[in-house]
Amino acid sequence: MRNTQSILNIPAVENQNRVCCLYRVSTLGQVDKVQDDIPMQRTACREFLEQQGWTLLDEVAEKGISGYKISAKDRDAIQVLQQRALRHEFDILLVFMFDRLGRIESETPFIVEWFVRQGIRVWSVREGEQRFESHVDKLTNYIRFWQAAGESEKTSIRIRTRLGQLAEEGHYHGGTAPYGYESAYLGRLNKQGLPVKDLQRISEEAAIVQLIFKKYANEGMGTHTIGNYLYDMGISCRSGKVFTNTTIRHMLGRITYTGRIKCGEVITEPLPHLRIIEDDLFEKAQELLIARSKAFSENRSVPRLTLGSTLLSGNIYCAHCGGKLVATTNPRKYVLADGTVNVSRIHRYACYNKVRHRALCTGQSGYTAKKIDDVIDQLIRKVLHKCKDMPAEPLVKMRLATKIAESEALQKKARVDMETATAEMSELQEEVFRVIRGESALPQSVLAEMLKVSENKVAEASKRYMDACESIRDVDRMCSDMSKQIGKLQSWSTLYNDAEPAVKKMIASSLISRVTVSKDYSLDIQFNISYEQFFDESEKNIIANLA
Q1: Which residues lie below 8 Å from residue 198, measured CB to CB, with a gap of 6+?
Q2: In this structure, are residues 351 and 325 in contact, taking their beta carbons and an 8 Å threshold?
Q3: Rounded (10°) angle between helices 501-511 and 369-388
Q4: What confidence tier does 34 reach under pLDDT thresholds 50, 70, 90?
Q5: pLDDT at residue 352 in the model
Q6: CB count, 10 Å around CB of 37?
Q7: How far is CA 506 from the centre of its chain?
Q8: φ and ψ at 263, to 5 degrees?
Q9: If DSSP codes are grouped into helix, strand and coil, which group holds residue 399?
Q10: Cα four-point dihedral sign 506, 508, 512, 516
Q11: N or C: which end of the chain has fewer CB within 10 A?
Q12: φ, ψ at 153 (rounded to 5°)
């Protein structure tokens, strides 16, 4: 039995005071600690039963079992004890505290009552015996369990709240300082008057952080290329090791570099003394991280690699088999009149399925990259020229009105669903008291499961309702996001013509989500929806005609 250990195996004793003890620690992390509280529970239970004059029959320990997350039916220890209770092998179930039996308030009281109905007395060292001799006993004990669960949750909330308060106050809440910072004593004292550490920037490391962000967001370098670049520059991590892809990705996603301290859901306002990266640069990096992630590998809007001479990467496909086209280079040698050998390179987009015979493809094995890239280049120039003088304000207002209407519709539906689910849960809660009074036909286990499902429905509908409300309220952010998209298009319009190949590649793949090529070099070009929304029908016609 996983995570369950029988500590003793003493033959049965013929009396009415045979005791089985149950011990539990909640997480495997607790198990690994020096101060494992199972020995404490065992000592307290043994002393208690000796005082009562009872006979210890067996001890069962659960290690790494959450009383909140794991149901009794999935806990080996509870199942073993129930089987032994049915065989009348013991008389008393003893725990240090009743929460060792579980902390699921809709389930644990029923577990305790089940043992009592089998003739097993259930005792806690701290809380005494659980009795179910009357309806008052039942109600009292159920309320006790629910209150205990509530107090435990309140304790967790208080801890999370205090950490959040530290963050809101701009204070460091511990842990390893991120690259670019160090933890140091800067004069702050805790409530006990003892000095505590805060973050401060390390100038040399901060400069490297800025370099990484600029190379990634502005120059189109991927994490692998940046790692190689830093290695060539002789720049390494604090440990002396090279910057890996994973390390760089984590750095790019760390909001601390904008001067904000994050703890759970709490994020502070920017603290000037901690800022290394400006917000615009950080947001640009986040957009690229999301677009380049594996989760979006089949529908990416930016290339994973910006090296090479081709304009498209990762978003060009064969129209005949649907497979990706990959950039390849074919060298060609020419002998000049003077005998000099000249080598030129022909860049092509090759159908991976066709070349590798991975799937049946009736199309070409490859396409000259220049023919395709010239069309894409002309298209981008045309679109960006159109966007250069785009009237931002009326366009934003129109898109905003549409989004608000959509959010209001979602809000209305979520409100109806929430009201329905809440009414259902109220009926089930009334049924709990009928169960306590012995008036319900529903089994306790069935009622507990129904309550759980109902609570989930309420929570899900409430979340949808709050999300819709937040979307409506957050008009300023939506306006800002749309304005940023337009601003990006307009900045690209002045940047693209004279940009380096890597930057052009970034812009092309940001604008265009998918290009499909057929035998006759006909192209089906799909724009990234975040930009397509700003094109009216005339611009879309230009795109179609040009392609």
Answers
A1: 171, 172, 183, 184, 185, 186, 188
A2: yes
A3: 70
A4: very low
A5: 83
A6: 16
A7: 27
A8: -140, 105
A9: helix
A10: negative
A11: N
A12: -65, -40
Lowest mean pLDDT among 158-167, 252-261, 329-338: 158-167
pLDDT of 315 above 80 = yes
DSSP 8-state class, residue 66: -
User: What residues contact residue 520 under an 8 Å CB cut-off, 6+ apart?
Assistant: none
What DSSP string describes 119-187? T-EEEETTTEEE--SSHHHHHHHHHHHHHHHHHHHHHHHHHHHHHHHHHHTT---SSPPPTTEEEEEEE
Query: Tokens 């929304």, residue?
Result: 533
- φ/ψ bin of 396: left (φ > 0), alpha (ψ from -120 to 50), beta (otherwise): alpha
**pLDDT (average), residues 134-155:** 53
Q: With residue 228 as reference, give the H or E element that holds it.
A: helix 223-232
Distance of alpha carbon 127 from alpha carbon 149, whole angstroms:
15
Q: Are 324 and 332 in contact (CB under 8 A)?
A: no
| The predicted structure's pLDDT at residue 4 | 53
Cα-based distances in Å from 310 to 114, 252, 331: 71, 26, 15
Is this structure's pTM higher than 0.85?
Answer: no
Query: How many residues would you count in the chain?
Result: 547
- The domains located in the chain, with CATH, are 4-163 (3.40.50.1390), 181-292 (3.90.1750.20)
Side chain identity at 321, as an amino acid letter? C
The label of the residue with tokens 């069962």 reads: 60
C-alpha 244/C-alpha 226 separation (Å) is 9
